[in-house]
Amino acid sequence: MSLTTAAALLGKTKGHLSNVESGRDAPSWDIIAFYENNFHADGQLWAAYVEVQTGPRPPQRAPAADKPDYPIPGDASEFIADVTIPDGTLMPPLFIFEKTWRIKNSGTVPWIGRLLARDGAAAGYGVPHSPSHTPIPDTMPGEIVDISVAIRAQPLAGTSQARWKMVDKNGWKYFPDRYEGGLLLTILVREGAPTPDLRRWA
After folding, report:
1. How far apart are CA 75 and CA 83, in angstroms?
2. Are 83 and 200 in contact (CB under 8 A)?
3. What is the predicted pLDDT for the residue at 13?
């Protein structure tokens, strides 16, 4: 579809749509809906829009000069397994479940008082809902730990993805330059889908 045709169907100017696509203008919900429906974004465009619109404000932090010198030498994490809800699990809208990951403290630094923080909006029409922070059990070097987060699937049908990163009590990331994706969850929501098997897989 040409930009001219899209602008005519939306009742917008071609210049405005061009600015939206280049990031100079913010999109309105009706533009998002038009692109979502006409280009089969499968919920991903809605998810991105909702995340931008509803994302939490950054926490109040100490001045940048007081930022911890992370990563800590010897601090390392290793992903072991998805224990529940494998990536790509099909489920009905608003289904409530517990996602569990298994990771290993593969470094030499004890994990004490750490948190798993949702990266991006923790709720929205097109994204799964979860607590913004979940405590990580204290884990000594060499130990393996299961981390569980309560999640409710989004109401909008389609594929969605959510990410979590390990942070301290002030929200600073322990691995700012490592594990870019963090811990991931990908689900596929479809009206009338069967209830997924919640047994532990690992």
Report:
1. 23
2. yes
3. 93
| pTM for the predicted model, two decimal places | 0.71
Residue 42: strand, helix, or coil: coil
Interhelix angle for 29-38 vs 44-54, to 10°?
160
Which pair of structure tokens corresponds to residue 50?
A: 């909702």
Q: How far apart are CA 94 and CA 153, in angstroms?
A: 5
Beta bridge mates, 119: 163
Q: Based on C-alpha coordinates, what's the Rg of the chain?
A: 20
- The number of C-alpha atoms within 13 Å of 28 and in the hemisphere containing its C-beta is 7
Q: Can you tell me the distance from the alpha carbon of 4 to that of 66, in angstroms, rounded to the nearest whole number?
A: 51
43-77 pLDDT tens trace: 667 667 766 665 555 455 555 667 899 999 999 99
**Residue located via tokens 């004890």:** 110
d(CA 19, CA 26): 8
Q: Which amino acid is at 57?
A: R
**Residues 6 or more apart in contact with residue 172 via CB below 8 angstroms:** 61, 67, 68, 70
Transcribe 79-129 into DSSP letters: EEEE-SS-TTEEE-TT-EEEEEEEEEE-SSS-B-S-EEEEES-S-BTTB-B
- Which strand (E) or helix (H) includes residue 181? none
Which pairs with CB-CB distance under 8 Å and at least 24 residues apart come from 127-130? 127/47, 127/50, 127/51, 127/154, 127/160, 127/162, 128/152, 128/153, 128/154, 128/160, 128/162, 128/185, 128/187, 129/154, 130/162
Query: Which pair of structure tokens corresponds to residue 47?
Result: 């998810």
